[in-house]
């Protein structure tokens, strides 16, 4: 039995609309009334325009709501950005930071990811910081070097205030949205590497930090992945849009 409480987060990416979301929230609510989820933490991260809708539907269920991104700055002339303070004001408890799509499509560097992490923590928001290598980096034997660089950039957060609100997500880029998940052993090896790397900053905090796996998690592979010693739940893309799949992944995390 792991001492860390499992966490499952759904990253909806740029999907959803008011009617479809309502259907998803209704199913999640009624399933949760029948199932005890107190053994795990569940987070749903819809696009920004639907955060209020998510909070209205889920605030009394125990499911937390998070943003998919957050600004590095606190406030000011940053057109199009959403601050951590705004997320907190609305009732969001989490923000995803440094997703590979933000890194590759929107140019987020390790420094930006670190700045966003520190700002969110300072505003009382929990962070799910994403790391992971591309296929080319894996094939060139660079996986550990890439993970070390990405982890070192934000590791100081583990030694500061709010460190219990830091969650890491290992998402190998080649497994995201491809249907090709990392094997249990491959994922475990990367998670152990990340934990050992964080231990260089603070060994006690590194043992307590939750490290999620993301990349083509489905109900069929969730239990195997979540049973590995250093995998503490998942960051779920496509399957988080299908209520039954998401619920079955949550049940796998509770059972692992
Ligand atoms: P998929 O679960 O669709 O592969 O996406 C993973 C992901 O990017 C979650 O952040």
Describe the structure.
The chain is α/β, with parallel strands linked by helices and 256 residues long. The protein has a single domain (7-98, 109-241), classed as TIM Barrel. The protein contains eleven helices and eight strands. Helix 1 links the parallel strand 1 and strand 2 (41-45). Helix 1 packs parallel to helix 2, helix 5 packs parallel to helix 7 (143-154) and helix 10 packs parallel to helix 11 (243-255). The model has no long low-confidence stretch (mean pLDDT 96). The structure holds 1,3-dihydroxyacetonephosphate. The site of 1,3-dihydroxyacetonephosphate has 14 residues, from strand 8.
Index terms:
256 residues; alpha/beta; TIM Barrel; eight-stranded parallel β-barrel; 11 helices; globular; binds 1,3-dihydroxyacetonephosphate
Q: What characterizes the major β-sheet?
A: 8 strands, parallel, barrel
- Radius of gyration from CA coordinates: 17 Å
Structural class: alpha/beta
Strand content: 5-15%
CATH topology heading: TIM Barrel
CATH superfamily: Aldolase class I
In CATH, the architecture is: Alpha-Beta Barrel
Helix and strand pattern? EHEHEHEHHEHHEHHEHEH
The set of bound ligands, ions and cofactors reads: 1,3-dihydroxyacetonephosphate
Strands, helices and their partners?
Layout: E1 7-11, H1 18-34, E2 41-45, H2 51-58, E3 64-67, H3 84-90, E4 94-97, H4 100-105, H5 110-122, E5 126-131, H6 135-139, H7 143-154, E6 166-170, H8 184-199, H9 203-208, E7 210-214, H10 219-226, E8 233-236, H11 243-255
Parallel strand pairs: 1-2, 1-8, 2-3, 3-4, 4-5, 5-6, 6-7, 7-8
Helix pairs in contact: 1-2, 5-7, 7-8, 10-11
Bound molecules: 1,3-dihydroxyacetonephosphate.
């Amino acid at each position: 039995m792991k001492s860390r409480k499992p966490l499952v987060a759904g990253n909806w990416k740029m999907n959803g609309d008011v009617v479809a979301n309502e259907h998803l929230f209704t199913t999640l609510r009624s399933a949760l009334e029948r199932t005890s989820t107190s053994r795990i933490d569940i987070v749903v991260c819809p696009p920004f325009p639907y955060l209020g809708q998510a909070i209205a539907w889920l605030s009394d269920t125990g499911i937390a709501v998070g943003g998919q991104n957050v600004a590095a700055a606190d406030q000011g002339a940053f057109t199009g950005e959403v601050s951590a303070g705004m997320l907190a004001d609305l009732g969001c408890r989490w923000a995803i930071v440094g997703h590979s799509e933000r890194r590759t499509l929107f140019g987020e560097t390790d420094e930006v990811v670190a700045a966003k992490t520190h700002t969110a923590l300072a505003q009382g928001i929990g962070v799910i910081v994403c790391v992971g290598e591309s296929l080319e980096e894996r094939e060139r034997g660079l996986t550990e070097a890439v993970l070390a660089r990405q982890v070192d950039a934000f590791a100081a957060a583990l030694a500061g205030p709010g460190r219990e609100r830091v969650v890491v997500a290992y998402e190998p880029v080649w497994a995201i949205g491809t249907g090709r998940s990392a094997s249990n052993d491959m994922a475990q090896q990367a998670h152990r590497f990340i934990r050992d790397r964080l231990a260089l900053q603070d060994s006690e905090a590194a043992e307590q930090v939750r490290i999620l796996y993301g990349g083509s998690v489905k109900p069929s592979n969730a239990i195997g992945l979540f049973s590995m010693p250093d995998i503490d739940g998942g960051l779920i893309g496509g399957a988080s849009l299908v209520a039954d799949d998401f619920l079955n992944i949550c049940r796998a995390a509770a059972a692992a």
